[in-house]
Amino acid sequence: MKYLLVLLLVLPLSACVMLPGDFGGPAGKRLVCHKGKKTLELPPEAISAHLGHGDYRGPCH
User: Fold this and answer.
1) 3-state secondary structure of 53
2) Domain membership of residue 40 as a residue range
3) For residues 43 and 26, is the Cβ–Cβ distance under 8 A?
4) Distances (CA, A) of 23 to 8, 20, 26, 32, 37
5) Where is the secretion signal located (predicted)?
6) Domain count along the chain
7) Is 15 inside a domain boundary?
């Protein structure tokens, strides 16, 4: 019973950690925090250019 309770508590948290940077907008676009200020929805082809100059995956906080 204790293990089932732990599983039910941990599983939803792990899903929240995996999703933010990979899913977001329409047509397969991804979320990127641009310059730490603005969340952008970008196509997968544009991600590497943004990550190369300091932006990061996922929404800005």
Assistant:
1) coil
2) 21-61
3) no
4) 23, 6, 9, 10, 19
5) 1-19
6) 1
7) no
